[in-house]
């Protein structure tokens, strides 16, 4: 049985590489007791802002067996999104993860293929893949899978490649030999991310106040207005924010990805703020049909633009 667990893990790692994932780790599927306590405290303190969905399915978030009956292993996959190109200097800032095709579409397809090929080689396997849209604590599983540590900015940091990665999780009833958890924290006394955060959303103890985060305000917040107390604090960010990652010393090891699906949409690189204000809703829907920007919708993008640039432009 142990031999099969080792051989199957080798198969898993080869399959991950074949499908374009940059790192793959395995952890034993078990109840996340310490994470449950932290999540409960985070929610109780209102760090999730208006993201009420974070309160839902609490038990599912910390118990993989409730998502996949008989779960034995949790496979964590990292998918590099660090771009080789940057936006024009006068362009409203967009988080690097959103430069190309919506990663939910890209990675979800890869997870389906992963399970299909796994079943073809191993036999009947019960499993489910998740990518940032289900009740899974993917960063905790990345830590347990030996892929990195959780930085002060809340991101998983890989010692060899930084933090510009999407995290995908595959929960399965296939018994696999687990990897060693990541035991060391290499952030040390560095506080660059804390010092650089424009809205002071990074708190001591690796706690993020989501209700203060620029990404929350420009993507998750669905209100017609953004809190005026944050006026002039967004530092040009129109969709998401990379500040805490951009200043992280470990991201000097980030290398541009080679995933064609994530190649930047030309408009994201080149549109000036004037161009964005002149963009019609019809054009927005066509150009960003397969982009993460559609999460904010046209109305949300306009709201963000007006908040960031004030009354410089008229609707």
From TrEMBL:
Pathway membership, UniProt: tRNA modification; tRNA-queuosine biosynthesis
Q: What is its main location?
A: cytoplasm
User: Binding residues for cob(II)alamin, per the UniProt record?
Assistant: 61, 132, 153, 156, 167, 215, 241-242
Location in the cell? Cytoplasm
Task: Name the PROSITE patterns on file.
Answer: 4FE4S_FER_1, 4FE4S_FER_2
Q: Where is the active site?
A: 132
Q: How is the cofactor bound?
A: Binds 2 [4Fe-4S] clusters per monomer.
- Specify which residues bind [4Fe-4S] cluster 1 according to the UniProt entry for this protein: 187, 190, 193, 248
Q: Name one GO molecular function term.
A: epoxyqueuosine reductase activity
**What NCBIfam families does the annotation carry?**
tRNA epoxyqueuosine(34) reductase QueG
Q: How does it assemble?
A: Monomer.
Name the HAMAP family for this protein: QueG (MF_00916)
Question: What is the annotated role of this protein in its UniProt record?
Answer: Catalyzes the conversion of epoxyqueuosine (oQ) to queuosine (Q), which is a hypermodified base found in the wobble positions of tRNA(Asp), tRNA(Asn), tRNA(His) and tRNA(Tyr).
Q: What name has this protein been given in UniProt?
A: Epoxyqueuosine reductase
What is the protein's species of origin?
Polluticaenibacter yanchengensis
């Amino acid at each position: 049985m142990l031999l099969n667990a080792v051989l199957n893990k080798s198969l898993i790692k080869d399959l991950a590489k074949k499908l374009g994932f940059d790192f793959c780790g395995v952890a034993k599927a078990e109840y996340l007791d310490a994470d449950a306590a932290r999540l409960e405290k985070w929610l109780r303190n209102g760090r999730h802002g208006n993201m009420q969905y974070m309160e839902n399915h609490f038990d599912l978030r910390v118990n993989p067996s409730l998502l996949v009956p008989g779960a034995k292993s949790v496979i964590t996959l990292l998918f590099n999104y660090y771009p080789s190109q940057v936006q024009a200097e006068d362009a409203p800032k967009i988080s690097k993860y959103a430069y190309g095709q919506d990663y939910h579409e890209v990675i979800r397809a890869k997870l389906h293929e992963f399970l299909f090929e796994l079943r073809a080689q191993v036999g009947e396997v019960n499993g489910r893949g998740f990518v940032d849209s289900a009740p899974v604590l993917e960063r905790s599983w990345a830590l347990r899978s030996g892929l990195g540590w959780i930085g002060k900015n809340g991101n998983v940091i890989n010692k060899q490649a930084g933090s510009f990665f999407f995290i995908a999780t595959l929960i399965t009833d296939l018994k696999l030999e687990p990897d060693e958890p990541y035991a060391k924290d290499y952030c040390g006394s560095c506080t660059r991310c804390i010092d650089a955060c424009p809205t002071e959303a990074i708190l001591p103890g690796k706690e993020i106040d989501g209700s203060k985060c620029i990404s929350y305000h420009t993507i998750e917040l669905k209100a017609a207005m953004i809190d005026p107390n944050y006026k002039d604090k967004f530092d040009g960010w129109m969709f998401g924010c990379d500040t805490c990652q951009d200043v992280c010393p470990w991201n000097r090891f980030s290398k541009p990805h080679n995933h064609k699906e994530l190649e930047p949409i030309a408009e994201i690189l080149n549109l000036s703020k004037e161009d964005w204000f002149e963009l019609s809703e019809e054009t927005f829907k066509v150009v960003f049909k397969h982009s993460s920007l559609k999460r904010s919708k046209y109305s949300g993008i306009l709201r963000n633009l007006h908040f960031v640039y004030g009354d410089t432009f008229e609707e």
